[in-house]
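Supplementary notes for students who missed Thursday's class. We covered one full example, reproduced here. Read the sequence, then the structure, then the short commentary at the end.
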Amino acid sequence: MKLVIAVIQPHKLDAVLHALDSKEIFLKTVSNVLGCGRQKGESEVYRGVREAGNLIKKVRLEIAVNDDYLAVTLEAITSAAKTGKIGDGKIFVLDLAECIRIRTGETGSVAIG
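Structure (token representation):
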């Protein structure tokens, strides 16, 4: 089991969600976050508004997947989020020690689905 954490540009969220849904990756959590990377917080124009300061608006996706779905998940995110410009984001893959479905008490890969 793996936990995939992707930090992407906000305007790419719909494309990434659609790509994940098309690969039957339905279980995901999405959060609005602030951060900076190699951009070093350089401002950019987003939907006609210049982002200021050293933290830029990003979207964080957290997706728990079984090992069989890892490559498909990574490909869906990278292909949908990529613009080729600085600030496209990052993907982190972590080992997931345990998963528990609260409703049924199922554990492990069965709980992820």
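Commentary. The helical segments are 13-22, 70-81, 109-112. The longest helix spans residues 70-81. If anything here is unclear, bring it to office hours.
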